Amino acid sequence: MNVEAKKNELIQWILNLSEEALIKVDEIKERALTEEIAAYSTKGEPLSQEQYANHIKGIRDRVEEGASTYTTKQVKDFVLNQTKS
Questions:
Q1: Do 47 and 84 reside in the same domain of the chain?
Q2: Using one digit for the tens of pLDDT, what is the confidence trace for 17-63?
Q3: 51 and 17: one domain?
Q4: Using 50, 70 and 90 to split pLDDT, how confident is the model at 85?
Q5: Are 78 and 57 found together in one domain?
Q6: How many domains are there within the chain?
Q7: 40: Cβ–Cβ under 8 A, 6 or more apart, which residues?
Q8: Which structural domain range is residue 71 located in?
Q9: Fewer CB atoms < 10 Å away: N or C end of the chain?
């Protein structure tokens, strides 16, 4: 499907949305216009560049305060040695 056809399909879909769905689409549009998504959380939530930088800083601070860290090998061993329920 070409870009013009996709735009027309989306226009028709938007014209038939309920008010509640239209509000959600508008929120997505506003968020897209005001913040560029730099990453996604493990829960799938979009993070702006500032939010992502703050997230990384928080991790760094917790590690400096003594939080446990694990090597790739330790994580791999843990995952491979789990028993299935």
A1: yes
A2: 999 999 999 988 887 777 688 888 888 888 888 899 999 999 999 99
A3: no
A4: low
A5: yes
A6: 2
A7: 46, 47
A8: 36-85
A9: C
